[in-house]
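Below sits the subject:
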Amino acid sequence: MQSKLHFISELKSLSSDGIFNIDKIEWWLLKYEKLYVKSKQHNQSEHLYKIDGKEVRLPDNIGNPTDEEKFIDVYERLDNLTKLHRNEDYFKQEMAIYNGIKNEPQKVKHWLNKNEKFGSDDYVCFLTDYLDYDTDDKVYHLGVFFLKDEELEVYVDRDDFKYTIEFLEIFNELYWI
């Protein structure tokens, strides 16, 4: 089996300018889904100990992450982002509704209540997780950061999350005041 880092190199090759689109990320995830499942099972089976008759997995915090741990981290973080993207059409619809009612306070209040779970729970950290970072280049795009591979930089085209961002900016402005 090839090194897990080979698969990360292949991911990098999907973008010539360092800006990825969500379709290519989804393709990469689908291509390596079986490897991810196998790697995750293997990784979870390591560091198993019997304590008081119970099987307990303790984390390995010693040393640098293995290639397998890096691969799992990259896969999971990108998979999470694609799951968040699945609501882009919903946010597009909600922004159309909002734009039609934005001058009617009672309807706006109802709109906020309807979308409270998304804005104050499911996506509450979205803007800070993906758009709040210190760098001079690619600031406009969503930055995906990896705990196990700090060298890897993945930026996702902001246009892929246009309505999510627009929705959250409006929601946050209205809800948190």
Notes: The first strand starts at residue 19 and ends at 20. The CA atoms of residues 141 and 157 lie 5 Å apart. The mean pLDDT is 88.
